[in-house]
Amino acid sequence: MAIRRARRNGTPRGLIQVRANRRTRYLSCWYCDWKFFSLNELLYFFGQRYARFLRNWMTFGVALSVISLFGITVMLFWEAAAAFHLHRWSFGLQDIPLSLFWGTTPLVSGLSISIMDFAVVVFSTVISVTVHELGHAVAAASEGVPIEYVAIFLAVIFPGALVAFNNDLLQALPNFASLRIYCAGIWHNAVFCVVCGLALLLLPLTLHPLYIHGENAMVLGVSPSSPLSDYLSRGDVILSVDGEKIHSPHELMEKMVQVDTKLLQGTGSNEKGYCVPNALLEESKTVSVLDDNFSCPDGHAAFIGLPCLNSSSFFEISSTHHGRYKKENKHCLSPELVVKLTKCGEGWGGTGFLKNPCSCSKNEYCMKPLLIPGLSWFEVSYAKPYSSECFQLRRNTSLIDFNPGYGSYPCGVGTFVYVGDMLILAHSMRLSAYQPRWMHFSWSMDVPSTLENILACAYHVSAALAAINSLPVFFLDGEYILETALYYITWLNPRKRRRAAKVTLIAGTILSVIALSRIVYFTYYSGSLPLE
Asked: Using 50, 70 and 90 to split pLDDT, how confident is the model at 240?
């Protein structure tokens, strides 16, 4: 993540040097690193062999890095002015969640982070840092500057890497050649972001021979503490929510965020009803009618009638029987029975449902769940295409090409009702948009999700490295890019040039720390990420 312009002047003061083969370690109470010398000759040979192409390639990186440095510097000073209320408009840097820097999906509520999740973050970070440092090394080799060493370091608790060059040789280079070296890391991180983005877009096509994509959301894990674990298990697929077909986890999350936003704004509709036969209502009145506390026995839920002025049923609302409706039109019903009935009301999002409460027959009445404010009622339909019963069914029907689609061979299709916060429902599961065409190994379910996480994490980490190294901050690439770029401002003499660089770096370092602190504060104390 940085370049060190090294001099051959021995071991730094206060460090213990340990040498083994062609590796060197420096240790102290606040800093340790591991230096590699074995790649020097290989990288130098590669850079010299393709020097002409690499110089042209790195020139694009100079343009990108200088623009990034200028843009981010302007943003930092603009945000500082907004923080001191010098103006009102802001870029909204404080709204950037920390999860953007690693790109992994949020942890499932009740599920601890797995070894695989941790390995994905570590692997993606190592790859992104390697791409960054190789960019510097190859750029230097193409300019004829040999590499001193490549090092991995840990400063306090912050890991990083660097490539060291001989300072005398760097100073002898033309300014633009030096810029090509300093900007190479940012440039290669940006290119790597593009590669990861294209790989993510092409992943469904790449995995098409082995996986079905975008048909339904498949369950990879359910929190043991969630009530969903009584119905869903690993390998099940979610067919629909409230009658709307769910094709991917992203689609499910979008629906839940939309519903949650409407509830918070007070614009959400809770007019989801069922056409309940009068006979069932009569039975519920004598067995489990709600008392003044609106409680229901176990296995039952509270329902209240939706008014229909055109209905002539026994439970019709009228001005003369308003008191009777208020008391007697609340019933305790079994959700397992109710969800099998015809739907009515205006709260259903799926197509093909009856929207009008008056659409029920004369012997039925439209009843909706009676819920506490802030909670919602959701019907979740699911299937179990990878269950043993499904495998047996397919074996009996002599299906050679296994396709988990439930189509004409339904396997464990069912429906359950979830009452509560929809976002909690979403975060209680880990889902995937991919379904294996052949289910020989259980781990095959996780392969597409793992690849997606690696590519997404590498994308975000690489983008973060490019952005951080574009900051005008001491010890990062931005410092060297700024110092070299100032040489092109010809009306500045060397003294003013050094002063401008020093002032900009001091201000940039302070403002970067403030901006990062604001991001951390608004992330953890404004609810962007849970503190767990």
From this structure: confident
The two tokens of residue 147 are 């590499």
Report phi then psi at 215, rounded to 5: -85, -50
Query: Is residue 32 helix, strand or coil?
Result: strand
How far is the CA of 426 from the CAs of 64, 315, 530, in angstroms? 39, 37, 15
476, burial (CB in 10 Å: exposed 0-12, middle 13-18, buried 19+): buried
Task: Give the DSSP letter string of 476-517.
Answer: SHHHHHHHHHGGG-TTS-HHHHHHHHHHHHHHHHHHHHHHHH
Tens-place pLDDT, residues 307-324: 765 444 444 433 333 333
Single-letter code of the amino acid located at 417: V
d(CA 104, CA 116): 12
pTM for the full model? 0.76
Grouping H, G, I as helix, E, B as strand and the rest as coil, residue 295 is coil
148 is annotated as an active-site residue: no
Alpha carbon distance 30, 34 (integer Å)? 14
The residue ranges of DSSP E strands in 105-210, in sequence order, are: 147-155, 158-166
Report the C-alpha gap between 103 and 118 in whole angstroms: 12
Q: How far apart are CA 63 and CA 459, in angstroms?
A: 21
- Band (pLDDT 50/70/90 cuts) for residue 113 is low
The span from the CA of 353 to the CA of 369, in Å, is: 17
Of the candidates 41, 79, 133, 389, the residue annotated as catalytic is: 133
Q: What digits encode the pLDDT tens for the residues 439-479? A: 667 788 999 999 999 999 999 999 999 999 999 999 889 99
Contacts of 530 (CB under 8 A, 6+ apart): none
